[in-house]
Amino acid sequence: MVSSTEYGSHTWELLLKVDHQHEDVGNEFLLQVTGDLHVGGLMLKLVEKIDRAQDWSDYAFWWEQKKCWLLKTHWTLDKCGVQADAKLVFTTQHKMLRLRLPSMKTVRLKVSFSSMVFRAVSDICKMLNIRRSEELSLLKPSEGTLKKKKKKDKNSKEPATEDILNLCNSPVSSGLPANPGLYSKTMTPIYDPVSGSPASSTTTWFGDSSSTEQNCSILALSHPNCSPETLAEMYQPRTLADKAKLNAGWLDSSRSLMEQGVLEEDQLLLRFKYYTFFDLNPKYDAVRINQIYEQARWAILLEEIDCTEEEMLIFAALQAQYHVSKLSLSSETQDSTCESEVDEVEAALSNLEVTLEGGNKSNILEDITDIPKLADNLKLVRPKKLALKAIKTYWFIFRDTSISYFKNKESAQGEPIEKLNLKGCEVVPDVNVAAKKFGIKLLIPVADGMNEVYLRCDNEDQYARWMAACVLASKGRTMADSSYQPEVQKILSFLQMKNWTMCSQTAPEPENVDMKPECFVSPRYTKKFKSKQLTARILEAHQNVSQMSLVEAKLRFIQAWQSLPEFGLSYYIVRFKGSKKDDVLGVSYNRLIRIDMATGDPITTWRFSNMKQWNVNWEIRQVAIEFDQNVSIAFTCLSADCKIIHEYIGGYIFLSTRSKDHNETLDEELFHKLTGGQE
């Protein structure tokens, strides 16, 4: 028999803090516990001690010193490692969080602070009606990017809460399960392809009140551009090092918000982290399309991505589509075109479906047996020292993933002057439609860096065919691939938008249109042109897109953004093993690029398709990657935690496994296996 005094020696006191709203009860409680008491039992004892009737189901213990949740309620205190000095807080798992969306709209909603960020983002996207949540994540804005914003806030007379959209009463934020019907393939369309507004069925997600319907409309519709003064106040990266700051604050998807120091009512940025927009469908993706469009728009306005003057005017014209169409089209005209525009969107979706599935079955045999090739006279431009360029015409043949060139067509049966293998190369457009300049810049990997080659085409059609072939070859694909023809059409479509001189319509006079052109272009171009000049040029460019519906204009904007050479690159400052200077590493959906920090020139490209394995040495925070042909690299990340780059690589590989056949369910376990740390 054990005496009561001996038994008492096995118990010890544990001070628990409770986060509750009862004013007549203290928030600290001292309990007598034993090491074999399980966490669920501790919860029960504590609730009995508080003695207040309320729903405690969302409460759990947060261990302050260890910065972790005690969510395994069947574990004993001994197994958890809890001793008398532990500071445990009994608090709610769902708390209020403010999120700034890509559209710069701030929403306030209740989010799980105990779930992994990957799961929390999934729940947030269900609240906001955004499919494919795996493409998004949460970002802490870095201090450097907030300096201008803080200065602006000081002088602002408006209350900070005025522009916040409160969604705390939506089903998921209240802790209720999401409606699975919203994500089924047979769901009713939630997007009007003409007006750009959500269909009424969308509102059931938020509720039946007029305010919830308005909330949904706000997230799915574009709003007037901000003033030039506001734009000037926002952070604009000037160098690659500045751009690296933008990507330093991504949260770890395998840990909870609370574990990463996020507090209730903090503000985070919800952004598309991975630039692979899968199954983008105008019928169901009202909010998603708008938010991708907005992220692209702000990236261009704030010069986070470079584009030419001609491209900037196209982007301005597509933005102005909303503004100008509201001024020039009556509601009757919009109604009459409604049916045809819906048909156009249907046809586009049908074409997209065929493209994704690899084309018609009748073409499969042809793809296998015919190895297409291109053969043309092109100009070869080789940069030389002292800024001189040697330009000469040769007979070029493009076969498989290689380009060979000969002195002339007659000598094509013999040995080529040179054969260029384009696998793993960088392909950069060098186009000015107005000046009839159609160039392709190839950066081909060689032992000591990148070999620069410029090709000059004679016209748009020739350029589109060769450019599409180069893009596919860089990814290791040939012109037999079913994506070749769609790629050619996409390039021709983009060139046509640039070539506004061909448009038969006359642009309205700038005096007759009330628009602020400075709102549609980055500050660099505002300084370059007078307001009236800029208006005239935007309206001229707008003639080529004036017949588009608002949704089509957004989709074309996204497509044009994807065509930019720097699209999808996230930058980090790194130090490669064996190097004495810092470099910039660009991470994209299919490759890593080592970039010279001083000049911005690519040094080497490594494709994910050639990657054998990668691992992280968590002690020295070093990422090591092995590629085919015994190529291996190792680097430490200086501008962010190496876990972010590790997660980027694993995340892109995970996204490449997605398929429509999987019924839109995600293998969350596989994601964490590819991206989780081994610390």
TrEMBL record:
Cellular localization per UniProt: Cell junction; Cell projection
Gene3D superfamilies the UniProt entry points to: Phosphatidylinositol 3-kinase Catalytic Subunit, Chain A, domain 1, Pleckstrin-homology domain (PH domain)/Phosphotyrosine-binding domain (PTB)
GO terms under biological process: cell-matrix adhesion; integrin-mediated signaling pathway
PROSITE patterns membership: FERM_1, PH_DOMAIN
PH domain residues: 379-475
Gene Ontology annotations for the cellular component aspect, listed alphabetically: cell projection; focal adhesion
SUPFAM superfamilies named in the record: PH domain-like, Second domain of FERM
UniProt-recorded name of the protein: FERM1 protein
Keyword Nucleotide-binding recorded: no
Protein species of origin: Machaerirhynchus nigripectus
Superkingdom assignment: Eukaryota
